[in-house]
Design a protein that fits this description.
The complex is a heterodimer of chains A (221) and B (220).
Chain A: H1 2-18, H2 20-39, H3 46-73, H4 80-86, H5 91-120, H6 129-154, H7 160-168, H8 173-189, H9 194-218
Chain B: H1 2-22, H2 36-63, H3 66-97, H4 106-127, H5 131-159, H6 179-219
Helix pairs in contact in B: 1-6, 2-3, 2-5, 2-6, 3-4, 3-5, 3-6, 4-5
Classes of the chains: A mainly alpha (221), B mainly alpha (220).
């Protein structure tokens, strides 16, 4: 548990001091939304608003992939990854620390594409702000569980930037389908049914437990 | 063992080919319906491959025995071959009966995603240096891939969607005379899977032996 808090604190402090990952993710996610605007000639039409939940999550996933790639790449400097691997603690807690830091950073980033979306595509998020934040958090938890483990794997391979999205995206469907469905329900009806929350809870728990248990085999000196 | 499985495959596949030839032509769909006898067995081969990969990966993580890893990579490759055949035969049938090459039917989507998972598995192995590390990483990813299968089906169950595929193979859903070629197709796919798996494991074993011999020669 101490290892979890130590890794979480270390990652957040590193991020706070450099802020490079956060800034890059923020700019990138806003940029993706702008690209959507060019790619969808309909502008803020009803069709675009209907697709908004999916597009918003695509922007989130792309930004997350950008940040996750750095999560372990920063540990390569000064061979810090070997230090983590040699720490006399259960490696699962190190994973949880890394994962929690990624969730916090992604949660901070997610606000920006949501805000840009709300403005550019005239999507009214204010009345459903809290349940929307809840669904976003549940989505990020699953996304970061798979992403953190995959980033730890990819960092030790050749072409790691190339491999990370290939490893993460095919496994994301249950997370994305729950998150997009939940967001769509909130934007259309203003309320949330239990099904998307249930799917996200089950998926998050499965991916988190599996990643916690297998991280031991992924981290090596 | 390989010779026995090869002979068994030859016999079963011949019986299956004969049964498919003799099977009645579907009144609604015509002869294109006979793709069923290839399409579904290929899915069985794919799932057999992916489950074997996850199981052998888990056993490898427990024991660090390289034989399990050789079985895992072999099963993944054979599974990808079956999955590719399944995905290729589906659209041919779909074009003839549904009028579209592709629909985002839940079962189709899940199979396509699974295909991508195992392509990523093979890429991961190709991009990782060191056989021990590559085996470890692949075993972990294989486990995640296997965990995604029930999660995907859970998502389908919750949200439904326009399902073109039958939900399950209910007794009596096949027309008269179609049961035998269907069942033989399943057995033939299992036999083909086993034979290809054994061949591939044998090849992987020989590769390991060659690598060992080369390392020994270099040491001397």
């Amino acid at each position: 548990m101490n290892a979890f808090l130590a890794v979480l604190w270390k990652d957040l402090l590193c991020e706070w001091r450099s802020r490079d990952r956060l800034v890059a993710m923020l700019v990138f996610s806003a940029l993706v939304v702008v690209v959507f605007h060019f790619a969808l000639p309909g502008g803020a039409g009803a069709q675009t608003r209907a697709n908004a939940p999916g597009l918003l999550w695509v922007a989130t996933v792309f930004a997350a992939l950008l940040g996750l790639g750095r999560a372990f790449a920063i540990e390569l400097e000064n061979d810090a990854l070997a230090g983590l691997a040699l720490a006399p603690v259960e490696r699962g807690w190190i994973f949880l620390g890394k994962w929690a830091a990624n969730v916090v950073i992604l949660a901070l980033v997610q606000g920006v594409p949501s805000l840009v979306f709300a403005i550019v595509f005239e999507v009214d998020l204010l009345p459903v702000l809290w349940p929307f934040a809840g669904i976003s958090l549940l989505g990020s938890v699953g996304l970061c569980a798979i992403g953190t483990l995959a980033a730890a794997v990819a960092v030790r391979t050749r072409f790691r930037e190339l491999l990370l999205p290939l490893l993460v995206l095919p496994l994301l469907w249950p997370v994305l389908s729950g998150a997009v469905r939940g967001t769509a329900e909130l934007l259309e009806a203003g309320s949330l049914s239990f099904e998307p929350v249930q799917l996200l809870l089950v998926t998050d728990a499965t991916y988190l437990i599996l990643s916690f248990l297998t991280f031991e085999y992924v981290l090596d000196e | 063992m390989i010779r026995t499985s090869g002979t068994a495959l030859l016999v079963i596949a011949s019986l299956w080919a004969w049964a498919v030839f003799e099977a009645p032509v579907d009144a609604m769909q015509g002869s294109i319906q006979k793709i069923l006898y290839v399409h579904v067995p290929c899915a069985i081969g794919a799932y057999l491959g992916f489950l074997t990969t996850a199981l052998c990966g888990a056993l490898y993580l427990r024991s660090s025995d390289a034989r399990y890893d050789r079985a895992a990579i072999s099963a993944a490759e054979v599974g990808v071959v079956f999955c590719s055949l399944n995905i290729a035969s589906g659209p041919i049938w779909a074009r003839g009966t549904w009028g579209h090459w592709w629909t985002w039917d839940p079962r189709l989507t899940v199979t396509l995603l699974l295909w991508f998972v195992y392509l990523a598995y093979l890429l991961l192995r190709a991009f990782t240096d060191g056989s021990e590390r590559s085996a470890r990483f692949a075993a972990v990813y294989g486990l995640l891939g296997a965990a995604a299968i029930p999660l995907n089906y859970f998502a389908i169950q919750l949200f439904g969607g326009a399902a073109m595929h039958p939900e399950n193979l209910r007794r009596g859903s096949l027309g008269e005379g179609m049961g035998l070629p269907f069942a033989l197709g399943m057995v033939a796919a299992a036999a083909a899977f086993l034979h290809l798996l054994l061949l591939r494991i044998d090849l992987e074993g020989r590769r390991a032996e060659l690598a060992r011999a080369l390392a020994d020669a270099r040491d001397q």
